[in-house]
């Protein structure tokens, strides 16, 4: 009998072309996704007079700079240049591009799964740290920098040392109003932003198996905020049902074979992990960040932390964060006034996220302005067919075209200096949403509740009578 | 990329934890072509006030000519933006010493000849205290994995493959292209054993 293997072991072996003496492996890349920010890599390729090695496995997506309003008339010359550059690079290399007006356009990590380009058993690279999202399907998916992007473009391979294996197990039923976002913010708060550095995280346990694909993607997406370049969930019926019939999913006999192969990917009973952590779903509450690092998060029912009572190693960080965030130690988090809200991003811009937010906003008015940017053009169409757009607009929020939008502010959707934003995104770094912007990360339902009260607030009372 | 084995330069303490890639280079500068140089944007919003004036107290504004930074825990966490490394390199930084680094940042650093030297939190603290608000000459020996500052001599940690790469200034694309026959063979096998790994044509 062979020794039991982890899903990471299996994915690794099936992509390893060779291993150097120093233990670094050359891996085959099944899918390479590029976006406007990949211009440095294309420039490197062109300097060498090379073309993309495998154009059929390379897909270009317009997302980071995608205007969310009035797409036909972009006025900022910097944004025009980014868009034009990606178009030119895609054309020169004969790549399929999901351009601004394409019905399949959207954020790269939303589009890949939605089109069946993301599949179990694949190795997926993208020059973006949230590539870990695709691991939700049981894929080996990780973000890379520009030099590595150029390497993948030129060779369809990547050099990589195998990470250590870590398993985060969550057992039990999540409380009402508690989502995958809360599972993620909770573990990062407990283990720290460097908590999983050097590891590939596999999420397991009954709570994870109960999550939809959208929830699993949210969870894997945030792995990088805990320092892990990889997040993954074993593929199961939920995965197969999600993928069946998607535009680029395998079809016919190949589909049958793929399911057989994918069932083999799950970690074998008894396989060893370098690190194991277990959480009880019942202990997880709706969670909000109060600081400028994703680890600075607490249940919404808690008080804003006091630097004097913090771990001495982190006291300065707490003090600096509170100063930047304009918060007072010891006050309840619940009730902190916000200036605006944002719902969207590759973390929480999918249809299920919009449904959860709309469930809270239905028949209510927002006290503060806000933006809802669907994760893709397909999500937008779907949401509109369900009437979610009307709920957002009637609540007083703006419903826009799809893209990264206010998650990173590259397209001009930014939060003003000193303004406080309740946001369904993934990074509360200083200035992430705009210079001086104060970001509080939370689930889309929590953002919706913040919109209604104009303050950070516990969403649970809003959900009475709503099944989630 | 040029290889190197030793470096001696002025070291500066930037004893702040979690300096993320959004701090190292804010997103709004990332559409600029590299040929224009990213140095002026390094830690832009930490260095300058809202009116673009340099903040006199910020360590990087007190001194010129430093090439080594002694930083806090989790340096370069966050996004994969290699521009964070370009900003450091273009500002003349060759080495960052810290207790831990973002995984993707370290990869990007080594790909650009920048050394991410890992030391314990105690050693980082000792170096920062010695440097205080000033700068001092530090020497880095890549071959032996040692750094020296005054009478402090400490080993730093670095993945062996990264050490070799920094010393040789290797370019991965050239290295990989030597393996093309193996890659081609692998691709052939994979298309047989995992035909589903190629995207099906959309209907
Ligand atoms: S939505 Fe935000 S985190 Fe996701 S890819 Fe876009 S900018 Fe990056």
TrEMBL record, chain A:
Record's keyword annotation contains Cell membrane: no
Domain of life: Bacteria
Keyword Lyase in annotation: yes
Gene Ontology molecular function terms on file: 3-isopropylmalate dehydratase activity; 4 iron, 4 sulfur cluster binding; metal ion binding
Biological-process GO terms, alphabetical: L-leucine biosynthetic process
Cofactor note: Binds 1 [4Fe-4S] cluster per subunit.
Pfam families linked: Aconitase (PF00330)
UniProt-annotated binding residues for [4Fe-4S] cluster: 346, 404, 407
NCBIfam families from the UniProt entry: leuC (TIGR00170), PRK05478.1 (NF004016), PRK12466.1 (NF009116)
Function: Catalyzes the isomerization between 2-isopropylmalate and 3-isopropylmalate, via the formation of 2-isopropylmaleate.
Entry similarity comment: Belongs to the aconitase/IPM isomerase family. LeuC type 1 subfamily.
SUBUNIT field: Heterodimer of LeuC and LeuD.
Protein's name according to its UniProt entry: 3-isopropylmalate dehydratase large subunit
Name of the gene encoding the protein in the UniProt record: leuC
TrEMBL record, chain B:
A Pfam family that the UniProt record links to this protein: Aconitase_C
Transmembrane segments: none
InterPro entries on file: 3-IsopropMal_deHydase_ssu, Aconitase/3IPM_dehydase_swvl, AconitaseA/IPMdHydase_ssu_swvl, IPMI_Swivel, LeuD
Domain Aconitase A/isopropylmalate dehydratase small subunit swivel: 1-121
Protein keywords: Amino-acid biosynthesis, Branched-chain amino acid biosynthesis, Leucine biosynthesis, Lyase
Enzyme class: lyase
Pathway noted in the entry: Amino-acid biosynthesis; L-leucine biosynthesis; L-leucine from 3-methyl-2-oxobutanoate: step 2/4
Enzyme Commission (EC) number: 4.2.1.33
Domain of life of the source: Bacteria
Any one annotated GO CC term: 3-isopropylmalate dehydratase complex
Entry's Gene Ontology molecular function annotations: 3-isopropylmalate dehydratase activity
Record's catalysed reaction(s): (2R,3S)-3-isopropylmalate = (2S)-2-isopropylmalate
CDD domains assigned: IPMI_Swivel
GO annotation terms (biological process): L-leucine biosynthetic process
Subunit comment: Heterodimer of LeuC and LeuD.
Family: Belongs to the LeuD family. LeuD type 1 subfamily.
Name this protein carries in UniProt: 3-isopropylmalate dehydratase
Source organism of this protein record: Aliiruegeria lutimaris
Lineage summary: Bacteria, Pseudomonadati, Pseudomonadota, Alphaproteobacteria, Rhodobacterales
